[in-house]
Task: structure prediction
Amino acid sequence: MKRQIVMHHTRKKNRIQAVLLVFIFFAYACSMQQQERGASGAATAVLKDTVGWATTLLDDGLVRMNYEGYYAPYSSNQNVNVLSVDLKRYALAFEDIRPSDSLSAVADEVDGAVAGINGTYYEIARNEAGDSVSSSFFKTAGVVKSRVTVPEDHRLYWKHEGAFFYDNATDKWGIVYGDADSYEKMPYANVLSGAPVLIHREKPVGAAFAKAREMPLDSLDYEDPDRHQGVRHPRTALAITTKGQLLLITVDGRREETAGMSAKELTQFITRYFEVTDALNIDGGGSTTLWVRGATPPNGVVNYPTDNKRYDHFGQRKIRNAILVVKKDGI
Result:
């Protein structure tokens, strides 16, 4: 009799455990389905066409989208990462990196940073008198770190055609055309110049930035705007959607696995997949890097930087400035 009671309790315990396991399994499955639906819904709200895109809902207001594979319109393989950021839930930090360091090393040490992208051009050239001059404007937390000092006839003058400004205190941000004087006068705490402007008030102006030339583009000076923006390279860009999201965009290149894009191609790619009011190319080449905290690569770098000449996540170039995405306090 005692043995029967023990067996009865054992069977009852096993049934309870089985029910619990089934409940846990279905709860997990529902959670995963909700996450997938959340990612799909968030991506659908940003992308005009989701075919070919893998999407990940990182958190409320933060969605990563990745296009990897053959892109028929350009007859080439492409790898494009786009991070959609809701600036009602997240703030931006413009990082001045002195001495220069990798994006992942800097971002990983910033409390609250959840993602980041490399900043703008920072070439320091020499004028005819031998003085150091800069082609880019960079301002962070109200302090100007780099002024545009190249003269108008300098070969780098084109590199500050537009700027992205951001002011958390007033909740003002956007992309504008400008020049050295207008950037100096901007009242915003953070300003970063770049070029070319890809989209302005929904017009794809970047498609016509690089002009056709009689000679092969590769024969021109590397910094000639027609060569620099007329051939395929890795690219880093910012864009603003019609619904008010900020897009951080990286295009990998210089490899068989991913060819990169010209300014015209990037403009067309953005307009094909996103409803965008404004977009600005801010840098490219070996500097192009997108970092996401907790991403699968050990260093959080989700794209394929080129400086190590290998198709992996470890070819970061040391950079001088960056834009980090930081979660707002209390959200």
About this structure: Residues 218 and 227 are 6 Å apart (CA to CA). The radius of gyration is 24 Å.
